[in-house]
Amino acid sequence: MLLTRGTVVAALGLAAPALAACSDPPAACLGDCTLPIELAPTGLRDGVLVDLVDGGEVDIRPPDQGGFVIYVGVRAKNVHARGGSVSGALRGVSGGPTLTIEERPAAFVLRADGWAIPESAFQDQPNLPVCGPVPGPADFDQTAWQAVLSFRDSDGRTASTMVTVQPRCGGWADCECSCQFDRTGPCTPSWIDAGVDARLRSRSTPALTRRDRGAHPAGVRRRPRRAC
Do the domain assignments include residue 228? Predict the structure, then answer.
């Protein structure tokens, strides 16, 4: 069928409202975005997002990209639900050089107590590498470290907080060996490169599912998915 200019214009005109309907709406403010940002640290413990205090334990886990990381981030007030970014850095409790740092986009959902928490405990918190195929500068398992956490909102406002964390291996195969500073040889099982197969786990530890990754404590309001 031969399309005339008028037919094409008409078709585009009909498609435009449908495309506009699928675009993301402006990010809502969770709180009062004319006020300063309030932050408090969060982390992953026993596979669940928790509020952290100094000395709190956090899981050492193998992410999809390989290696071992801890998941630490922030809960916030007076921030936009989307468009901001959160960064994390790990250093010794007595100071010294920064050992690892990561920054990523952050999305929040509102909790019943008024705090905005990471929408995903895995994807919306910095994944800070702590152990790898080459021995690091110190033991990470059951050793205290200082996590420095910063947030930048979509409107340019910033805030930061710190917390002392104690990473721990939670039954993941190869974790305790990989996180030893003074090990003298390769770990068993031997290191596997990045990818889904890099999630080494013991027989007693269940695999993470997509549903697990989206799980939140009770009292959290989820963002509805767009139909389109």
Answer: no
Q: Which amino acid is at 24?
A: D
Domain that holds residue 142: 26-213
CA 81 → CA 56, 67, 93, 197, 224, distances in Å? 26, 30, 32, 33, 13
H helices of the chain, in order, are 5-21, 175-178, 210-213
User: Is 67 part of any domain?
Assistant: yes
Residue 211 tokens, joined? 């549903």
Burial environment of residue 8 by CB neighbours within 10 A (0 to 12, 13 to 18, 19 or more): exposed
Predicted pLDDT of residue 219: 40
In a domain, 73, yes or no: yes
Q: Is residue 222 part of a domain?
A: no
CA distance 177 to 60: 12
> Could you tell me where the DSSP H helices lie in 117-192?
175-178
pLDDT score of 13: 52
